[in-house]
Design a protein that fits this description.
By secondary structure, the chain is an alpha/beta fold. Among the domains are: 4-105, Arc Repressor Mutant, subunit A, CATH 1.10.10; 133-270, Rossmann fold (3-Layer(aba) Sandwich), CATH 3.40.50; 285-381; 719-810, no CATH class. It is built from 36 helices and 15 strands. Strands 4-3-2-1-8 form a five-stranded antiparallel beta sheet, covered by helices on one side. Strands 10-11-12-9-13 form a five-stranded parallel beta sheet, sandwiched between helices. Strands 5-7-6 form a three-stranded antiparallel beta sheet. A hairpin with a 3-residue loop joins β6 (88-91) and β7. The protein binds adenosine-5'-triphosphate and magnesium ion (MG).
Amino acid sequence: LGITYEIGPFRLNAAAKAVTHAGTPIALGPRAVAVLALLVESAQEYVPKARLMDEAWPGVIVEEANLGVQISAIRRALAQAPGGEYWIETLARRGYRFVGPVSKLPNKTPGDTVGTSPRSNLPEPLTSLVGRERELKELQKLLADHRLLTLTGAGGVGKTRLAMRIAATVIDSYSDGVWLVELAALSDPGLVPQTVTEVLALKEQQGKSLTERLTQYLRPKRLLLVLDNAEHLLAACARLTETVLRQCPQVTLLVTSRERLAVQGEQTYRVPSLSMPDPGLDISAQNLAQFESVQLFSERVRLHRPHFAVTDQNAPALASICRRLDGIPLAIELAAARGRSMSIEEVNQQLEHGFRVLTGGSRSALPRQQTLRALIDWSYDLLSDAEQALFRRLSVFAGGWTLSAAEQVCTDESVDKEAVLEHLTSLADKTLLVAEERDSVTRYRLLETVGHYARERLRERGGEAHWRDRHLAYFLALTLEAEPLLKGPDLEVGLDRLETEHDNLRLALDWAASGRGDSVTGLRIAAAIWWFWQTRGHLREGRQWLSRLLAAAPATEALAIRAKALRGAGALAREQADYAAAEALHRESLTLRRELGDQRGIALALGSLGAVALELGNYDAARKLEEESLAIQRELGDRASVAQVLNNLGEMARLQGDYATARARLEESLTIYRELGNQWGISTSVTNLGEVASAEGDFADALALLRKGLLIRRELGGQWGIALSLEGFARVALALGSPGRAARIWGHAERLREETGSPLPPSERGHYDRHIASARAAMSDDSAFDSAWHEGRAMTLEDAIGYALSVPDA
Ligand SMILES: Nc1ncnc2c1ncn2[C@@H]1O[C@H](COP(=O)(O)OP(=O)(O)OP(=O)(O)O)[C@@H](O)[C@H]1O
Ligand SMILES: [Mg+2]
């Protein structure tokens, strides 16, 4: 298996012959990669030229100059990292040596093939991990024996970092993967279960609390859940972990928190400081190098001063710094960042001076919290005015930000837009913020402790409200940009974008709903993203935001936005099967649209009311409403909406047994979807046509149509649609005299409906129950039916699809 090396911001995968820089592949030929791989494998040792040439040109004799060419290419590539051009040392006439930062990364997903769903969402850290070998060993043992392991310790001591690494190391022990839930940005304890369901991409389900939903999903799973930075949500995390421990026997929880959860069965592990030299130790360059705190300090200094080395001369100062900082990694990183513009001795003197002031002249050690605070103070004081201002303002984000967000939100005459990138880089260099890759986009965030500090500073200065307003305005713009994506082929892109910013969106909405920010802006955001809440299954939360904002915004202003928000709230209510509320909300929306003379809006409201009536089984009312809506849509020429309404009408006719009308409506809908190239629509129409054929007893046609629909849906993903298709196949199987086959397919469809949180609507219940009863009756006994059903549930999604598509054996 290919090993991946972490080389500063680079990753080298020797087997795949690939090198990436901050997540993006860099152009290095295979020979250069081979040379680099050998150098890195033998890091810190000289590698003779002959060996390198053997590696790059196996079995071929080449001129030495060729090797020189490869080495320069590699150096050019490495120079993208600060100091990277010095990472390969030349030993004149003999060979080369790699002296840059290297560590081996545990193999994340061996044998993962393209297309399988990812088994982890751990981010790739951009800096190397130092030491912690012993802790990793101990933790690995503890994790194998305990189902709840909490890493405790002071701020900045390295809990999060250690948890990520241990999680990455043990990934192969959890067949359902390792999932990181970041809680630092969350302020509402009520959202803890939801944040977990979000990470696992679970939808809500009617009549179930989120915790029930979560445990139902987790019960059969073998996975590791990492709850990071739980300290400010202890009670909520304790409640959740207790439930999971009790109900999901194969799930293991790894928590980081300044305090333990105090839950039964919890194993705590106090994360120690990095090892540091004892005061009595004979301090020479050689014996200092074994200490982790010294290594971390040197590595971080080397990011800026590649030639930095521990010498007998600077060793005493270095030892003193590490002791003073109590081996706290965050403090060490902050101090090391000063080491780019000062000698180690000077850093030490400054610390000594500063700490003496803090301890009132006594030489006794500062408490940890103060040590860290003093370090942050120090780093902050040394920033330029513009950097300080930007740093304070960045604390208005929750869950990180992108470069462009910082540019839009945090700038004014004192912080120049053009300079933001430079400032961010400088702040990251000083460890005041972290840059991370997520899906090849760089996101920045403040570490927990540092974020608190920045927020405090912003409040002290006043003006927090101004920056929160800017934050709100920015997220309105982002939302309006994402909204059109939600209606087209880039749906997933839009949804992911919103999901990434969910913490920021919550913060912005809360600001707007609290009466401090502009409530209409908040309402506008909520009205634009209800579809996100619906498709990603955040029904409860979406409805809460919409109703809070509908209440907060003045009822006589921004009526068009209000109408849109009402429609969103109504749709979410319908999805929750709260039909009375849904109808009331859509009616209110309809009234507003009529007042505004908004034809399109009227059509939408009528269509929505029709959908509610349909689910309640009020076919006559539903048909009337949909037809009225259809007439308006036709007039407006909105073809996608026309196709959709036709489809609804077709379904309605089918459920009422009027197959001729059903077919006519569905075929017209299909034609439009084909012209629009709307695959999702095509799959819906053909599947529904398949259902009509099946109802009429034309099973060959039915199978052909259902098959077409399922193939598209498999391509598009989306388990809910697949469940609908499978149910169609099951009915045909039953009709063709294979009740066992039908039971298997239904069984799997049921599981998909559970997993996506989309139960059967009441209008379909009757048919469904009747079909199942007759399948049951057709089998020799109940247990045969039940066991077929369970076989189907246990199939993988791919197998279930394959089984449905396969030709039935009579
Ligand atoms: N072993 C290590 N090697 C390299 N860097 C480390 C190590 N441990 C911690 N760090 C770095 O130190 C900083 C603080 O670490 P981390 O965020 O893990 O602390 P924490 O204990 O989770 O703090 P908080 O309580 O504020 O959440 C980070 O920049 C992290 O990358
Ligand atoms: Mg942490």
